[in-house]
Design a protein that fits this description.
4 strands; ion channel; alpha+beta; ion transport; potassium; potassium transport; two-stranded antiparallel sheet
Length: 104
């Protein structure tokens, strides 16, 4: 038998760190449903924060404490300057190799 279910919850209905009490038991080869405990919940050992919140906190921890747009722009300019210097050094090495080959 195919079954489809659809649920919608409001904020006050969501309990973080709780599970539903099992309602199915196997007795004498048959499953029995205890509808009296259908809405009962019990608390479980659950982290205070969700996985998304933990990831956001970890990413924020990697940022400097005094972050600003100007400091990010300065960092970007420094990286560009370093890349240009490396590129210039590589070009000089290649030019030097060509000059050495021509002299030989």
């Amino acid at each position: 038998m195919t079954c489809q279910a659809r649920s919608s919850y409001i904020t006050s209905e969501i309990l973080w760190g709780y599970r539903f009490t099992p309602v199915l038991t196997l007795e004498d080869g048959f499953y029995e449903v205890d509808y009296n405990s259908f809405h009962e919940t019990y608390e479980t050992n659950t982290p205070v924060y969700s996985a998304k919140e933990l990831a956001e906190m970890a990413s924020r921890a990697e940022l400097p404490l005094t972050w600003s747009v100007s400091s990010k722009l300065d960092q970007h300019a420094e990286l560009e300057t370093e890349e240009e210097e490396k590129s210039q050094e590589e070009q000089n090495e290649r030019n030097g190799d060509v000059a050495n080959l021509e002299n030989e």
